[in-house]
Amino acid sequence: MAKQRMIVTDDQVLIDMDLLFNAIREADGKWEQVESEMQAYLAAITNMTRTEK
Amino acid sequence: MEYVITCGDEGVQINAGTRLGIVGAGFQVEGFTEVLKHLRKSLGTDEIRIAGSAENDWMKQVLDLDTWEQVDASTQQHIAALADEHDLLYAGFLPFADPRQLKHDIKGHMVRPKKVHVANGISFTLGGGEQIYHLGRYVISAEWIASAPEALAKSVLETQVAFYTKVAGQKLLRVFEEEGDVDPDLVKKNKKRLEKLGLL
């Protein structure tokens, strides 16, 4: 069974731990960069949800 | 109907236009010229658009590049050249940003998080491109497979399935979409061939 990797709600992004660590690895360990990208993603999603309502 | 070929990356969202997913938008996909011939026939139009997309894993692999900055720059050049080579309309590049208006009436953007692939399935489109966007699905265009030689369909589809499986790091669910403007008889034949190839 294929695993679900991410759940997006109105104000939360719940993400598979492996994906998060892979993203940090790909960013050469710059976790602040990944944190900032994930925060930006959450903000974009929240904004999209608000626009649709 | 404004059909646009993009990568089947789950992060590519087309807001205006109908998406046909081919890995790397067809760049260095063996048989792409033949696929286009059959795709044009199945869709009943020669006018097909093409767009590049950000953080493209296929481009990174085939061009053997190290950084996403290099990949994004190369993608724009190579997809524009691919459009010229195959008489496709080059719409532009889909970034990680708010939806962007591209050329030839196409609008879209990337909607997955950067450096993260979240899909757990593949959607084969059989009837005329992606009808419903799903962040959890890679997209593979299969409108053309019944009218093409079976060996070509098998090789092009299996290449994409293998690549997305590798990117996802897990076995992927298989689903299909039958809706669209393609002749219903052809859609049935596409589905039959997909089943025969063991891809559903």
Tell me what the structure shows:
The complex is a heterodimer of chains A (53) and B (200). Chain A is mostly helical and 53 residues long. Helices cover 60% and strands 11% of the residues of chain A. Chain A contains two helices and two strands, in the order ββαα. Chain A has helices at 17-26, 31-52, and strands at residues 6-8, 13-15. Chain A has a two-stranded antiparallel ribbon. The longest helix of chain A is centred in the C-terminal third of the chain and has 22 residues, at 31-52. The radius of gyration of chain A is 13 Å and the shape is flat. The model of chain A has no long low-confidence stretch (mean pLDDT 88). Chain B is α/β, with parallel strands linked by helices. Chain B contains five helices and ten strands. In chain B, the strands form three sheets. Chain B has a four-stranded parallel β-sheet. A three-stranded antiparallel β-sheet of chain B has the order 2-7-6, with no helix packed on it. In chain B, helix 2 (57-63) crosses helix 3. Chain B is globular. The two termini of chain B are 27 Å apart. The model of chain B has no long low-confidence stretch (mean pLDDT 97). Chain A binds chain B through residues 2-6, 8, 13, 15-16, 18-20, 22-23, 26-27, 34, 37-38, 41, 44, and chain B through 98, 111, 113-121, 135-136, 168-173.
Chart the SSEs and their pairings.
The complex is a heterodimer of chains A (53) and B (200).
Chain A: E1 6-8, E2 13-15, H1 17-26, H2 31-52
Antiparallel strand pairs in A: 1-2
Chain B: E1 3-6, E2 12-16, E3 18-21, H1 32-43, E4 49-53, H2 57-63, H3 68-86, E5 89-94, E6 100-101, E7 107-110, E8 121-125, E9 137-141, H4 150-168, E10 173-177, H5 184-196
Parallel strand pairs in B: 1-3, 1-4, 4-5, 8-9, 8-10
Antiparallel strand pairs in B: 2-7, 6-7
Helix pairs in contact in B: 2-3
